[in-house]
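Now read this:
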Amino acid sequence: MVGATYALAHELYPFNPVTARAGHHPVVIIGGGPVGVATGLDLAQKGTPALILDDHEGVGQGSRAICFAKRTLEIADRLGAGAGMVDKGVVWNLGRVFHGDGEVFNFNLLPEDGHKNPAFINLQQPYFEKFLIDALRRAENDGKPIEIRGRNVVTGLTQDGDKVTLDIDTPDGPYQLNADYVIACDGARSPTREMLGLSFDGRVFEDNFLIADVRMTADFPTERWFWFEPPLAEAPQSALLHKQPDDVWRIDFQLGWDIDRKAELEEGRIRQRIDEFLPKGTEYELVWTSIYTFQCRRMERFRHGRVLFAGDSAHQVSPFGARGANSGMQDADNLAWKLDLVLKGLAPEALLDSYHEERAYAADENILNSTRATDFLTPKSEMSKIFRNAVLTLAKDHAFARPMVNSGRLSVPCTYDGLYLNGPDGLDAPARTRPGSPCPDAPMADGFLLDRLPGRFTLLGLGIKAPEVATDLPIGTLTLMDDDLTDELRSRYMGEAAQALYLIRPDQHVVARWAVADEAAVQAALKIATGQI
């Protein structure tokens, strides 16, 4: 039996010998981390049974991912976990960039009002995962078809034309089960990917970063502080300070490539760095430390027959910009509705190919941004360093230079421009709500728009009645008039238009928009959005 390999922060799904039995399942998800649980929850809320298998019995220790973006919180809201995350998390919108001991500039990630969720929260990954598991348990208790099995280790996987067979090891011995589809959410070292002999190509960055989580009471504001060349004796190339819940602060030091990792992880050495970084006399407790080297890689394809890959198993990026966990949650958001429709016979199997098309497009965007951030942080030549430092000097006094400063472009959801599930754009309206884009939130007379867009297709009428459409697809209509047409909603969705009609996907991305459309136009757009054209 494969045993536990890391200590748990929370035991959430202990091994249950009663549940570990053979059978057939529509969807089996390998990996009980955020992406796997989010995908399973989304499927179960739509009525498609999902079984999650994890090789441990809960969430591992260590804060790991801590920055969760507004779009992730919006997805978590639909899954029943968002409110708890925001209540527990440290909310921040403001970031500051320093060079040496001087501030270069600051920025606001959410300068406009009218959003339910903040730009970012800082929340240790164990908490984030626990809130998702709590939502899973509530869904289970409400009769939703979802199950998670701890210490169920997938040791073999084969697929034929109509099913996938999984070999599973448990403390009570091995068993087999079958699935219509398997989703691999088993991390950057994905055993599933290895079993299928699939490549994971990209770039390994020759750099090392020390993470230190410390518990202290400090007067630092709740902001993201980033230093280029901080004025410290050991001269790390960069440093980062973030506040987390429970009086825990994340400190990152960029150490370079040629280091003695064992020596750098000694407590005395870590404390030497922190003591110099923090104000003199600051008392703190070391909570968790780690050194990581990162890579930007992705699979050539995210779908292989009846096996689909999501999150770090499909793509990996540097931590700059908080693009790892956030992009994984968008994978879940993209895949669940498509797989649900295919399994219910409401869309052709070819719709699953659009999962790869859209999320590989997003992965390439994230990898590009991560690579650019790394190159700016660590210039590869003396001339590159001169250019980087000149940009930082200019940015202090000149706004035009600030967009060139790259300490990690922070995660934003991908707009699927030019991809094949997009319908027509028949509205002269703001570009931010064009087909392919994620719907921005906006206040209404009572509540917020995204809370009214559930996990199904929705026809949104703004100043015009949404037409009824005869279709087998699950679809809702939402007509907003008068007081509900707030200034924020008009500016984001209508611009100067007097009225607007939007067709919105279950993952809250825009399919099509018109000034006016009849039932036939909407049906044609639905066919495009479900891979039938």
